[in-house]
Design a protein that fits this description.
361 residues, mainly alpha, Hypothetical protein af1432, 2 domains, two-stranded antiparallel sheet, two-stranded antiparallel ribbon, 18 helices, 6 strands, 5% strand
Length: 361
């Protein structure tokens, strides 16, 4: 792959006049250009799936992590400006990370710090980020390290103060916590409150709550289709208790009091959700039509390249109104009542999922 020096769309971001973007009540200069650059970078790969991620996941995840960082940051008294830039840039080189490598026994291979080693996936197109990645030979570096470096170079080009840049770089580096690190290294990484917050928000989004449930649906659906040619709704739902139990330990790993409280609430919601789904399994076909089982089946139908924002819009604009219309056509009063209760469960699920997407819960 050649890396020339012609102007790309990303270069034009840096030549644009200064702009502000408002996020979470903050007006932040150049964040719009930086956000556009991040989104453009994610689009440079043609692979739909890389490891446990997919094309639309990268920006969906980034925007949710930023919203959650700002919410936790407000409650904890953190520097929201540093958090906004760090969260926006924290995964900017993640698309270089491919599948996790395994040894001859099928065990995941880790480096000296305990991080999983992944295959290198090269982009099909180039921009400022890929040029910097190539010029500074960042190949085979973890995305928290390469991403911190790239973030520093981008912020430098926009004229941010050097101390601000170094703070943002450290926050990004720390969003992945090394398993094998001495006390001095952990102190360096996590003394800043903002480092602990980005770490927590990133971990929560992938593992706790309804947003993590959506991710789990997509990971398992894709796996089932690859193995068996189809996804099995009942089998997936019946396996949820094991996944919920497995995520319990993530709450204890959260570093800030606010995140731990939110993480506990997210786990509680998942357990309550399982209780509702267990009940729905008793009337499987009915709840495929009207209830949470139907929502899961709809999410499963979009496994090629899921987009949570678009699917939430469809739920609100089409899926729920369609069911409400169907209810009016049910001749039996008891059936109509049961169907309304099922749709109400969906509406409550959508409300709570929206709160998580926007960082409120």
């Amino acid at each position: 792959m050649g890396f020339g020096h012609h102007h790309s769309a990303a270069d034009s971001h840096l030549m644009a006049s200064p702009s502000e973007i408002e996020t979470g009540g903050l007006k932040l200069r150049h964040l719009k250009e930086i956000e556009d650059l991040v989104r453009e970078t994610f689009s440079l790969w043609d692979e739909k799936r890389q490891g446990f991620s997919w094309r639309n996941y990268y920006w969906n995840h980034t925007s949710r992590v930023r919203a959650l960082c700002l919410e936790i940051g407000r409650r904890e008294g953190a520097d929201l400006e540093k958090l906004a830039y760090a969260a926006t840039l924290h995964d900017i080189t993640k698309r270089y990370d491919g599948r996790i490598l395994t040894d001859e026994n099928g065990r995941r291979i880790t480096d000296e710090k305990g991080f999983w080693i992944t295959e290198l996936v090269m982009p099909k197109r180039e921009n400022l980020v890929t040029k910097l990645y190539h010029e500074h030979n960042l190949y085979r570096t973890l995305h928290n390290i390469s991403g911190a470096f790239i973030a520093g170079e981008i912020l430098k080009r926009y004229g941010f103060p050097s101390d601000f840049i170094e703070s943002v770089k450290l926050i990004i580096e720390a969003h992945l916590k090394p398993l094998n690190a001495d006390e001095d290294e952990l102190k360096r990484l996590y003394s800043p409150l903002e480092s602990r917050i980005l770490h927590d928000a990133d971990m929560m989004d992938a593992n706790l709550g309804y947003v993590a449930f959506f991710r789990n649906i997509q990971i398992h659906t894709y796996s089932m289709i690859r193995r068996n040619g189809r996804a099995d709704l009942r089998r997936y739902v019946e396996g949820l208790p094991r996944w919920i139990d497995m995520k319990e330990g993530f709450v204890e790993r959260l570093m800030t009091p606010t995140a731990r409280h939110m993480g506990e609430e997210r786990q509680r919601r998942k357990r309550e959700l399982w209780g509702k789904l267990r009940m729905e399994l008793e009337e499987f076909e009915f709840n495929r039509r009207y209830g949470l089982l139907g929502v899961i089946e709809y999410f499963m139908s979009c496994a090629d390249d899921p987009n949570l924002v678009e699917q939430m819009s469809y739920l609100e604009g089409r899926w729920i109104p369609q069911r409400l219309n169907w209810i009016e056509g049910e001749g039996d009063t008891d059936v109509r009542s049961e169907a309304r209760r099922a749709v109400e469960r969906v509406i409550e699920f959508k409300r709570l999922l929206s709160d998580e997407i926007e960082g409120r819960a």
